[in-house]
Amino acid sequence: MADITLQVQGMTCNHCKMAVEKSLQQVEGVTQVDVNLERGSVQIQYDAQKTGKDQLEAAIDDTGFDVAN
C-alpha cells in the first residue's frame, strides 16, 4: 500500500468533499480517502500496483477541482 497527500484548490463545503471522495473511491486500487477542508488536502491510501498519482489527480480533476502539487 502507498499513501499520498495532495493539495486541492477550490473545496469549500461538504458537497465538495463528498464529490472528491466519491470520485477517488471509484479509482481501482484506492482503499481510503480522507478529505480535510480546512487544509485543502486529500490523503489517499492506494495499491500502487493498480493505480498511481496521475490517475488520482485525474479523478480529482474530473470533479472540477485543481490539484496544486
Describe the structure.
The chain has two helices and four strands, in the order βαββαβ. With 69 residues, the chain is α+β, with helices and mostly antiparallel strands. It has one domain (2-67): 2-Layer Sandwich (Alpha-Beta Plaits). Strands 2-3-1-4 form a four-stranded antiparallel sheet, with helices on one face. Strand 2 (30-36) and strand 3 (41-46) form a beta hairpin. The protein is globular and about 30 Å long. The protein starts with a strand and ends with a strand. The model has no long low-confidence stretch (mean pLDDT 96).
Keywords:
four-stranded antiparallel sheet; 2 helices; alpha+beta; 69 residues
Assembly category: single chain
CATH class value: Alpha Beta
Ends distance: 21 Å
Percent of residues in helices: 25-40%
Cα Rg: 11 Å
- The CATH architecture assignment turns out to be 2-Layer Sandwich
What is the residue-mean pLDDT, rounded to a whole number?
96
Global structural class: alpha+beta
